[in-house]
Amino acid sequence: MKVNGIPTRTIWSVDHGQAIGIIDQTKLPFEFKKETLRDWRQVREAIATMKVRGAPLIGIAAAWAMVLAIRDNAQDDLIHEVRSELIATRPTAVNLQWAVDHLVKKVMPLPAKDRLPVAYREAEEMTQANVLANRAIGTHGAKIIAELYAKKREPVNILTHCNAGWLATVDYGTALSAVYIAFEQGIPLHVWVDETRPREQGLLTAWELAGVGIPHTVIADNAGGHLMQHREVDAVIVGADRITAIGDVANKVGTYLKALAAKDMDVPFYVAAPSSTIDWTIQDGKHGIEIENRSGDELRFIRGLDKKGHLADIRLMDAQTNVENPAFDVTPARLVTGIITERGVCAPEFLTRLFPEGARKHARS
């Protein structure tokens, strides 16, 4: 995507893998700031603090963290240690483990002296593959939006939750990729953007949409059901951090409530994600997916501009107030109309038809 007219991605290699560049997303939407990370611990910290965020992006970032670790020490013990530390950083998003394990599997059979160039090549290939997959997701998702427009002949209203745009991936995004491509095709549309407390990722979505001129409106998290009741939402499209083999979906907390409202009002509810988000080892998402609990300070404070225009953290409640901060919830497959992947759109129960190799691999293990 473009920022101020300049083609930009969320992550890139610096000096042929000697470092990586990122966008510090904790500064958005008020400041666009790039940062260079020069060792794997800095990348791990960037993932933990959500300087980089979004399931597909943290997977790619973790792959590059492995490259930096192997650059410094390509011995078996360190590789396994770094792998474990990275996976523990954000446990719900399966893309992180998928990316790290894919890279480790490629380098471990090799002598230590041969591992770095292979790790670099694999990270580059995964980065490019992410872009292609996201573009394909958008192409398939745009067809859904086009069909909705053909029926109503008025702008299509899409509701999103969290940020599943290019900032959550290397480029294009997942849920927003469909919006971008539909917009490119000239389909009139409007996006309802959930603010998505407590990290306010909806503000990132609004920042993205404003950058390309797509009509949008930010709403409070609890306004979605009201809009659906009044027939102001034609479809809900969200991303995902993990999808089970039967189509249960873990996504940013609050997604389940949107899915319930959509089901009640007969509004189609779609999930857009690459195949790397599917965890074939899990059937029951409610009991099988580990839900990350984050710091209570994300609820106690909110970040914004003070009266002088400086970025500041504002306290919302007493420091002793008890808070619980689950970062994700699980939407059962029965509430999902369809899953939009790089291979097409299917009902949750037909995931194995789109990706038979994933199901076969799990059956053998």
Secondary-structure blueprint:
Layout: E1 2-3, E2 6-7, E3 11-14, E4 19-23, E5 34-37, H1 40-48, H2 55-72, H3 76-89, H4 94-107, H5 115-152, E6 156-160, H6 175-184, E7 189-194, H7 201-212, E8 216-219, H8 224-229, E9 235-238, E10 242-244, E11 249-252, H9 255-264, E12 269-272, E13 278-279, H10 285-288, H11 297-300, E14 301-305, E15 311-315, E16 328-331, E17 338-341, E18 344-346, H12 351-354, H13 356-364
Parallel strand pairs: 6-7, 6-9, 7-8, 9-12, 10-13, 12-17
Antiparallel strand pairs: 1-2, 3-4, 4-5, 10-11, 11-16, 14-15, 17-18
Helix pairs in contact: 1-2, 1-3, 2-3, 2-4, 2-5, 3-4, 4-5, 5-6
What does this protein structure show overall?
The chain has helices spanning 40-48, 55-72, 76-89, 94-107, 115-152, 175-184, 201-212, 224-229, 255-264, 285-288, 297-300, 351-354, 356-364, and strands at 2-3, 6-7, 11-14, 19-23, 34-37, 156-160, 189-194, 216-219, 235-238, 242-244, 249-252, 269-272, 278-279, 301-305, 311-315, 328-331, 338-341, 344-346. A hairpin with a 5-residue loop joins strand 14 and strand 15. With 365 residues, the chain is α/β, with parallel strands linked by helices. The chain starts with a strand and ends with a helix. It has a seven-stranded mixed beta sheet. It has a four-stranded mixed beta sheet with strand order 13-10-11-16, covered by helices on one side. It folds into two domains: 2-129, Up-down Bundle (Four Helix Bundle (Hemerythrin (Met), subunit A)); 138-364, Translation initiation factor eif-2b, domain 2 (Rossmann fold), CATH 3.40.50.10470. Helix 1 (40-48) packs parallel to helix 3 and helix 2 packs antiparallel against helix 5 (115-152). Belongs to the EIF-2B alpha/beta/delta subunits family. MtnA subfamily. InterPro entries: IF-2B-related (IPR000649), IF-M1Pi (IPR005251), IF_2B-like_C (IPR042529), Initiation_fac_2B_a/b/d (IPR011559), M1Pi_N (IPR027363), NagB/RpiA_transferase-like (IPR037171). Keywords: Amino-acid biosynthesis, Isomerase, Methionine biosynthesis. One of its GO terms (molecular function) is S-methyl-5-thioribose-1-phosphate isomerase activity. This is Methylthioribose-1-phosphate isomerase.
